[in-house]
Amino acid sequence: MSPSRRTVLGSLVTLGTVIAAPTAATSATATPGRRRNAAASTAAAFEFLAEKIDQYGAGATLRVPQSYTGGYFAGINFVSSFLYDDALTVIALLQEGSAAQLARATMLGDVLLYVQANDPIGDGRTRASYQPNPLVTADGTPYIGSPAAYSGNQAWVGMALCHLYQRTGQRKYLTGALTAADWIQSRTWSAAGIPGYTGGRSADDQPLTFKASEHNIDIGAFFAMLHRQTGQRVWSARSAQAFAFVRAMWDGTARMIWTGTTPDGVTINRDPIPADVQTWAYLATKDARYGQAVDWTIANLTANDGGFTGISFSTTDTSKVWFEGTAQLVAALDLRQAPGDQARINAYLAGLRDAQRRAPNADGKGIVSASSDGLDTGFGDLYYAALHTGATAWYLLAATGANPFTL
């Protein structure tokens, strides 16, 4: 893990809600009542994303949804929209199937293209966050929240654009994805130390020389999409380079993946160990060794809080449940389908739906980030029980069986 879309919030970031404890006795067969409850839950979650998107405009008006709503953030009027969350929202909306949600997804895709094309530096980067009201300022530049340009965030923007190109066939989305990829390659590839992609650029436009497993997973998946959509072998080779870094972070004894390196690009960062690196590596590569990291996550990061059970963010703090990460775990289990995984999936999803209804600050539609306030990520952030577009999007991806790392 590394400074990324999570760390730009400092002490303001939020965390995922908890879910009911999975047990081996959970039935792998959904009853009609459970299916109806699941359908109503996903419909409500899609409605939440639509409401957030339409809060600051309608139709084709370029706009972004604020990432966090209610709870701690209501008291400080924090309305920033993190582009990682927006990219996830695009991919989630594409799973719904209606013309209205496709229109919202393409509008958000057009936002990604706009902020990329109209950035003050103008080199193809996008920023960590933007402000929603107004997104477009009087001089036409986007209203930037956090100006950092992390390599992993660029990859998520690129993946969202690839998904849009796959669905719509509109060439502009592939062009924007290639612009993001060129920025990543030209500004973050480093053959020094352990070869891999570095963190990107800081808020004051200084190079971030650490190498994060998370970012390299994102980049590897993104470049694999570009290879599929362009047929250009260079993207396959670059994808392999990113995934080679992830393999270098694999600990075959503990059967998990380290965070990445320190800024020297060589020394492995061994504390804390985050959950998302474990599940994302499996989702992005389908490599069986990373299926073992999924088991490591359950064994080492399970959290119980407020009547919910799920996983936490990292080894730093397992006192609260991270809902977004729990949904990521569901997606990885759904892909793996090892013995016992379906029972775990059913229990985790049932718990997420329960959290949708009754977690602190729940509205019956969206998913809150954490089971309670103050989850310490170990990377300088605290997560809160606030409604979160990113957590809601991950819930929808998990509930619909979608994998954002593949087309």
Automatic annotation (TrEMBL):
InterPro entries: 6-hairpin_glycosidase_sf, TAT_signal. Keywords: Signal. Residues 1-20 form the signal peptide. The keyword Signal applies. The keyword Signal applies. GO terms for biological process: carbohydrate metabolic process. PROSITE patterns: TAT. It comes from the Bacteria. This is Tat pathway signal sequence domain protein.
